[in-house]
Amino acid sequence: MTAAEAMVAATARLRAAGVAEPARDARVLLAHAARIEAARVTLIAPEDLPGDVAERYEQLIALRAVRVPVSHLVGEREFYGRRFKISADVLDPRPETETLIEAALAEPFERVLDLGTGSGCILVTLLAERGSATGLGVDLSEAACLQASANAVLHRVADRAEIVQSDWLAQVSGRFDLVVANPPYIAADEMPGLADEVRRHEPAMALSDGGDGLGAYRAIADAVVPHLEPQGRLLVEIGPSQAAAVMAILAQAELTRLGVVRDLDGRDRVIRARYG
Asked: In this predicted model, what pLDDT tens digit does every residue of 126-183 receive, in sequence order?
């Protein structure tokens, strides 16, 4: 079987399994199986697949057909122009979270705190974009802390990034001019409606608080003010219907100048606030 024929067969199989973008996934996974860049797949399309490549490809397609995310199969995901190492222990970085990055970079900062750092994609990106900044990332998951540390090394910011296991701000000391968070905001009753890739393969604690989806914002609001410098900023990602509720929570915590930042699809995505 040629590479092209294998891709056609894989695309049909993934489509039948309900995968949203079967052709794209078939192409990406073939590149991974062949250990080449995705852009080079067209060059090998007329060629017969070597036996070891065909076997790896079959395994990858079988896993994708049962909705294992592509990022887990290839071990990485692109975010803000960089490739981050990803595993089942951390939330898969989403393009909409780049809205948070843009909002953070809109003003200067020197010391950043990333709450629920996960893969470290937010903290590492901000430090990579601001070469003079230092930061702290915290996560309740030890496995996530290890993943974030690895990504800090990968992108050469490890000397400016500290990663600590912490239940939100419990182990945090000091003050920051920027605090960011992409917390679990999916309500418990919304979890069954998530795509299989998310519901079955991403860590539940990174998706939902097990309640109304607002618990993390309450925990952050209760403890963040002593860790913000005067005029320090807080930026939190939200679900598209949560803006009013999250702003009300933050308004009760001495935070001011609250506003909403929308993503590229025009949906409410980030709440910004300031201390003082």
From this structure: 999 999 999 999 999 999 999 999 999 999 999 999 999 999 999 999 999 999 999 9
Range 76-275: architecture per CATH = 3-Layer(aba) Sandwich (3.40)
pTM across the whole model? 0.91
CA distance 52 to 191: 38
For every residue of 126-138, DSSP letters joined together read HHHH-TT-EEEEE
Inter-residue contact 112 to 126 (CB < 8 Å): yes
Question: What are the tokens at 11?
Answer: 């695309």
Task: Tell me the domain boundaries of the chain.
Answer: 3-66, 76-275
Write out the DSSP string of 227-276: GEEEEEEEEEE--TT-HHHHHHHHHTTTEEEEEEEE-TTS-EEEEEEEE-
> And the tokens for 92?
């898969």
Q: Which two tokens stand for residue 17?
A: 């399994």
pLDDT of the residue at 38: 87
